[in-house]
Amino acid sequence: MASQSTLAPPESGGRDGKLIALPWFARLPTGGKLFLILSIWLLPLALIAMAATLQTTRLADQQARVRLRLASTESARALAIELVGDMTALRAAAAALATDAADAPSCARAEGVFAQQSSAGTHFAIVDRAGRVVCGVPLPAVRGDARDRAAITAKLLPGDGNGGGVLLTLPPSRTGLVARAFFPQGTLALLGRPTSRATAFASALQLGDMRLPLESAADIGPFDRFEAMETDLGIGGLHLTTAIRAAPISSSFIVAMLLPLLMWVAAASIAWFVVDRLLIKPLRRLRASVAQFTPGEVINPGNTGPAAEIRELGDTFRAISRTVAIHEKGLADGLVRQTKLTKEVHHRVKNNLQVISSLINLHARGAPSADATTAYSSIQRRVDALAVVHRNHFAENEENRGLNLRTMIGELAANLRATAPESSHALGISLDIEPLMANQDVAVAIAFLVTETVELAMNCEPACQIRIVIRTGDVPERAVLRVGSRALVESDILTGMLGTRYGRVMEGLARQLRAPLHYDPLTGAYEIGFAVLGRA
Question: What is the DSSP letter of 22?
């Protein structure tokens, strides 16, 4: 029986799961994974096919051995019957002649037995001690012929073609007669030829190391194999060796053995080639096209191969990219319209603030008293501060990076000097501001806080000198505003103004900046931290 293969295909929940979970397997390309999986699944089938081929060869060898056993048994039986029968008749004649040397009938009977085969070269001879032939025909003397043996002895006489044969010698009688019989090679071959002779049948007689071929197999190829069997004839130590051709190791056998492996390799390779060419490479090209996609453009997948599914996938990507391009164009147009609208709104707000500032200035000129003029000027400074923030925000609106604090505070300081009362004509404002950006909410609070602080200093001392500093702190996203002046040193006038109006306003602006407002009464400085967007 054929041995069963122990290489079973991996089960879905067994080695396949472990194989897919391996890191090295996950790093393989899809084509390599497919080739490896198909190889593992198809290899057991190839081994089973090879085992089946070997089993077929074994069965053929077993049938050849059965035919050989039948042929060998038939040949050995035929030879043994003929040799034993002839030697029995010869023994009877020799015994009769040993009793009566003139017993002609006994000699005639022996001659009658051998007469049927005499034409083929089978002869016998009964000789006395002196070597004279008493009955039969003279036979060549054989070296080593002992006369004291108790059993039949055999001698193989080699010769070319049919010249050889077997010489059988009976043990000598009491009177010294020795009987010999010679069976030629051709006769023995004819006798030992079985009726169920198979193709390429060969036989030979074996006696010790000597061998006498009877039949030789014809048409023997270089890869032919033979099954041999040896059978004892039971006379003179002779053995019959027979051989029959087994299933040869031919080119067809080698092809039959290698074909499952070739089919295994071919199936895995063809599957890998088809998947790689029809699926993997088109998918890679499609992936490259999608990876190079820029919003607003249309994906062109190019040649996606013969797979209809991949072509449909490419068409889907093309349709999606076309839809995205249409939407992007609509968004871009909408953004342009929104930008124009925003510019228009900012422009109108700026114009409205300018109109309000002009109206305040006109009313201030016609004010009936100095206190009214001062109030109008204070209101105008705050409107100007708001206008400065809007104007700078409008200028930065294209990039939306925030407001430049250096530019805004510089313009605000110029407006404050321009709108200062006549008593503050010697007012000085120095700036030390880093180029930082802030959002609109922070910029409005900073502008109003600077305006309130500068106006507070002017009211305490009209000809004061003010220094405004904005620098980044320990945290990059935070900056510190510092407004300092000798006019802001603690005094009764400062305390009174803070208690009546300025204190509440400055505290409200500090809450808008979400930071505490620090005051140093000895140096006359206000400090507050605020968030920035970065450097300009």
Answer: S
Cβ contacts of 516 within 8 Å, gap of 6 or more: 510, 528
Terminal C-alpha separation, the chain: 90
Residues in the chain: 536
What's the distance, CA 234 to chain centroid?
A: 70
**Cβ-Cβ contacts under 8 Å for 325 (sequence gap 6 or more):** 295, 296, 297, 298
Contacts 24+ apart (CB under 8 A), 113-117: 113/85, 113/86, 113/89, 114/86, 114/89, 114/181, 117/187
Euclidean distance between CA atoms 47 and 4, whole angstroms: 9
Q: Please calculate the CA angle 525-528-530 and round it to the nearest 5 degrees.
A: 150
**In the 8-state DSSP scheme, what is residue 150?**
S
The token pair that represents 112 in the structure block: 């009658």
User: Do the beta carbons of residue 127 and residue 177 sit within 8 Å?
Assistant: yes
CA distance 91 to 88: 5
Token pair for 326: 């249409």
pLDDT digits (tens, 9 = 90+) for 209-218: 888 888 876 5
Count of helices and strands (H, E) across the chain? 13, 17
Contact yes or no for 10/16 (Cβ under 8 A): yes
Angle between helices 440-460 and 405-418 (to 10 degrees): 30
| Strand extents, DSSP E, 278-412 | 403-404
434 Cβ contact list (under 8 Å, min separation 6): 405, 406, 470, 471, 472, 479, 535
Residue at 416: amino acid letter: L
Output the CA angle 402-403-404, nearest 5 degrees: 125
Place of tokens 């009769």: 96
> Do residues 96 and 174 lie in contact, with contact meaning Cβ atoms separated by under 8 Å?
no
pTM: 0.43
Nearest CA to 438 among 467, 479, 466?
Answer: 479
Please tell me the number of Cα atoms within 13 Å of 207 on its side-chain side: 19
What strand order describes the sheet that includes 239-245? 210-215, 201-207, 239-245, 226-232
pLDDT digits (tens, 9 = 90+) for 298-342: 887 777 777 777 788 888 888 888 888 888 888 888 888 888 887
